[in-house]
Design goal:
Strand content: under 5%
Order of helices and strands: HHHHHEHHHEHHHH
Radius of gyration: 32 Å
Largest sheet: 2 strands, antiparallel
Number of helices: 12
Strand order of the largest sheet: 1-2
Distance between the termini: 90 Å
Amino acid sequence: MPCLRYHDNTAPFIGIHLIQGFTTSHPTPTYVRAVGTGFREGKYGNFGSRKYGHLESTMVAILLEPEACSAILIADPFLREPLLRVMAPMRSMELKQAEGQPIAHLNDMNTKIGMMAHSFTTVFSFSLPEYTPHGSAGDATPASPESQIMDVPKTVGLLNGIFSLIKHGLSNFNGGFGSNWKSCNKGDFDVTNSYLSFSRPLNSITTTQDDHADAVIGELSTLLTSGRLSCGDSALRLAQQLIVSSPEFHTTNTVISEASLRPLYQQALPTRPLSMSCFTGGCVSYNMLVPHTCTGTKDMHAKYTRVCEETAIKKEGLRVLEG
């Protein structure tokens, strides 16, 4: 419809959405005006066809406008959309199709991470362009549309899915993004749909373990964070967090990874059940375990009666414990 296509708000509206997808979540009015002009006039510098709505001039304006090239933009908070965070390890960690498996299919993504390609929840896309998160995140940035998608369940779902992809391949195990439950053994990708094939084995002849570890971490930093993985104390703290998440930290035994189940422990002596009660309100603790018959010279039930007075339970009302 020409009335909507050539409306004065069409160019800045499209410009803001494209800018938020490529460079920054909260562009300045000058930036939006430059992109809108490129869309409306079909020209930015030497690029474009001088026709209304030409996307070449629009994209060039988005990427070459001084604000997009500013060093300030590097420190500008810019949250990746959740679907892009799923695709990043798949691309950089070399997702490989298992032999004889069908095309990789991401299952139930709207529920797990709140986003899936060509599956908008409303006609207004997944989030509002002017959305501002609450708390310190909102204080740091005027707008962050991607934050509107990521509530707590979807944040947990995103991490569970990526962890499952790394450990088990593309399956539905442990909250994974796949649709099959065929494999649940970590590192066993024989029957999974696809898996991350990234591998850098150590060649002890040409390099040391320390140099190899530094090289692998550096490559992972480049592939997953564009080389932005911080070093120094923050990296040390991150390594410490990973270590305290390991089973070796939480146990004192030698941890052995095995596919078989642990054998049942054979108890040599008979056991007795232990009953425990949890009271939400108050209780008279003296009446939980009451002395009944004592073999010594002191009558402990009589002493218990003197202490508890009217709340004391008479002997005929007690249940005797045998054994």
